[in-house]
Design a protein that fits this description.
single chain, mainly beta, 1 helix
């Protein structure tokens, strides 16, 4: 029974997105874009969503491509943390 709980807990959502703000202390805003099929017009539409993520060492900066992972709620808006920086801004 406990093995199932551990397996369920181990799976956490993760997204790859672009850092759009790093003005807050230990927090970054990451914009994640996905393409979805529009139900009425049957065309692909780009959906964007912003997530606030915890950045402990203030490593990420505007323009970086990062991976964020779901975690426990850290504040009112923040329940994601920075997993890795995939590509630095040029």
């Amino acid at each position: 029974m406990e093995e199932q709980a551990v397996k369920a807990k181990a799976h956490k959502r993760s997204f790859v997105g672009l850092v759009t703000s790093d003005k807050m202390d230990k927090t970054i805003v990451v914009t994640v874009s996905t393409k979805r099929m529009d139900t009425l017009y049957k065309k692909y539409v780009t959906w964007t969503k912003k997530y606030k993520a915890h950045d402990e060492n203030n490593d990420a900066h505007i323009g970086d491509t990062v991976r964020i992972v779901e975690c426990r709620p850290l504040s009112k808006d923040k329940c994601w943390r920075l997993a890795s920086i995939i590509e630095r801004a040029k």
